[in-house]
C-alpha cells in the first residue's frame, strides 16, 4: 500500500511540472556546453550538455523567468509562459564585454590583490551561508579510452568481451557511463547523508553507480582541497605565498552586481596549486564561478595530464545566498600508449538552508540506495534527468542495454567461455583457467612450470609452486566459496610439500567468513615474513647472504572473521601446529662461490649443527579485533562498503594462547595492542604513526618461534610504499623477545611542501620523508633509527622509487646506511 501511495504522489508531482528544453548557442550558432540555467528566485536549475542542449523542470506553471548564465557571455533572463507541459526555448548568448579601467598595475598597487584580500577576509562569512543545506542532486559520469594498443610491453591486452565490444577498430570508445538522482543533506565540514533514488549504469541493469555527492564537495572557501594531495585554494589564508593575480575585467550580472574576472597563476610551477580564473562578486566578495586547470604533476599524479574543474554559483534574491548549482570535473590521463578521458557533471537544485539539523540526520551511513533505485525505466529518466544525453551517450545506452540481455544469457556466456576455455597440451606446463560465467564458478591450474613462483633459499634450494583452485560466487548475495591446494617442491632438499585451503563468505553485509586450512610448508620464524622470497633470492644468489630463516610447519587451523559491529572486526583462529627444525641443504650461488652461507639457526648463524629449537607440537588460539572509530559506510542492496573515518585512529587488540603443547613450558599467553593513525597537515604533508605494545605471560621457556619478532631489514632494499612497520637497519632476530615490548614508527611525507621550493630538487617532482623508529624491550638498550629521504622518484610517469639515508643507534653501536625503495616489488610479490 505504501508503494502505491508513493507512486501516486510521484506521478502527481511530475504531472504538475512543466519542462523547458532547448539548445544554447553563441551568436555564430556554436553550441555552448555547461551553461548554468535556473529559474529566477528558486534553486531549480540545470546545465547544458556538450552539445548545448538542456532541459529544466519548472514547478509553478505560469510566467517563469529563466536565467542563462555562462562565463564569458552576458547573462540572459527570459520570461516564458507555460502553454503546454513542454516548452521549446532556444537561446543565443552574446559575448560579455569586460570593462577594465585604465590603471597602472605595479606590485604595490595591484587591484586584483585588493579583491582577493577582500575575498579572503569575507571567506568565513560566505562559507557559513552554505554551511548547512539539503538539495536534490544529479550526477553523470563518463569514462572513455582512446587509441588502446593491442599489446603493452609485449603482453596482449584483454578487457574481456563486454568491454572490448564497446571499442571501435582504433581502440576508442566509452568504458563507463552512469547517472544518479539523489537527495542530499550536508553540513560543513564533512557531514553527509545521501539517499540515491535512481541509479543507472549503461549496460548493467543490476548495477549501482559509484557516483555520489561526496565526490563533488570541493569547497574553495576552505584553505585546501583534497585531491591526491591537498591543493591550495586561491583564496586560502596563505594564498599570496602561492599565487599571482591579475584583474582581467569586470561585468554586471542580471542582478546588477559587479563581477570581477581574475586570472590566477602559480608563483612556482611544482607547487600543489590551481591555474585559471576565479570570478568574485563585488561587495559580498563571494565566489561567482571557478574555472581552474590542475596539472597532474602538481598533485603528484603523473598519469593524469590535466584536470579541469568548473563551478558556477547562482544568486537567490530572497535569502541573498550564492550557492553552487553546477560543477564539472573533466580530466585526461594516460600511460603505456593508452589515453583516457573522463567527465563528471553535478547539478544541485531545490536548496534549503536550515539553521540546524536534527541530531539523527547524520550518522555513520553516508549513502543509502532505495531498494528499486536501479529499476527506473527510460520514461522516468527522460522526465527527471536535468542534463540531456548527448548523441554519443544515447547511442551507448541503447547499444549496451540492448546487448545486455544477450550477454547475460547462457548461450552467449557459454560461447565466450568455450572460446577462452580451450585446453592446449602446453597448458600442462604453463597453467590453465576454466570459467563458467553463467553458473558463476571458475577453476584454475597453476601449471608445472609456474615460473612466477620460482624462488631460492638455502634450505630448499630452488623451489617451485603449483596447484589447483576452485571458486564459486553469487554477486547479488555476496556469497563466495573457494577451495585451493598449493604444491611446493624443493630441488635441493628433494622434498614435496602441500597445503589445502577452504573458505566460505556468507554475505557482503558483515562479511562473515569461515575458513580452514592444513598441510605442511616451510615457514619463516617471523610469521609476518619481513623478507620476501624475491628479495631473499636476489640476496642469496648474487651476494651470498642468507637472511630467510625457515622451519618446517605441519598444521591444521580454522578461522572465523566477521564485522560484529560498525567499525569492529573480529578475527579468531584455532590451530594445531607441529614444528620441526630445518638445516641448509645447498651452498649454491651465482657469485662468491668460495664464501659460506650463514646457518639456518637465527640464534647462532655460525652453528651449522645445533637447531634453533627442539621438535614439538602445540595448540594455538588467537583472537584479534580491529576497531575503526567513526567508521562510515555505504549501504547498497548488494552489500555494505566501509570507509575509515580519517579523523580517528585504527586500534588493534590481540590475545594469543598456546596450550596442549608436547612440553608444558611451551604454553604461554600474550596480549597485544596497536594504534595506527595518519595525521593530515593540510598542504604540509602527512604524518603517519604506528604504535605497538604487548606482554607475554608464563613464557620463560617457550619456543623461539613464538617469541615476538620485529620486522628488520638487512638487504638495504625497501619493498613497501611507507616504512611504518619496519626497522631499516635492524637485524631480523637480534631483538626478539618473550617479555614485554613497545615499538614506535613515525614517518612524515611532506607531499612536496619543502621539496617543491628547493631549486633543482623541485625538478624531480619528489617528496621528502622524515622518519623516526624506536623499539624498547626489557634488559636491553633501546633501538632507534632516524631516516631522511626522497620519495616519488622515477622516470616520466613512473615514480616507483625512493631512497633513504638511515642512522641507527643501540647501546653505543651506531650504524649508517642507505635503503633503496623499490615499490614495484609490491606487484612482483
Notes on the structure:
- It is built from ten helices and 44 strands.
- It has 829 residues and is mostly beta strands.
- It folds into four domains: 16-92, Carboxypeptidase-like, regulatory domain (Immunoglobulin-like), CATH 2.60.40.1120; 128-406, no CATH class; 440-608, no CATH class; 684-828, no CATH class.
- The longest helix has 18 residues, at 391-408.
User: How many separate domains?
Assistant: 4
Tell me what portion of residues adopts beta-strand conformation.
over 45%
Q: How does the major sheet shape up?
A: 19 strands, mixed
What's the average pLDDT?
A: 89
State the end-to-end distance: 56 Å
Basic shape: globular
**What count of helical segments does DSSP give?**
10
Q: What structural class results from the helix and strand content?
A: mainly beta
The protein's oligomeric status is single chain
Specify the helix fraction band: 10-25%
Number of strands: 44
Whole-angstrom Rg: 31 Å
Low-confidence stretches: 1-16
Supply database-style keywords.
829 residues; mainly beta; Immunoglobulin-like; 4 domains; 13-stranded mixed beta sheet; disordered N terminus
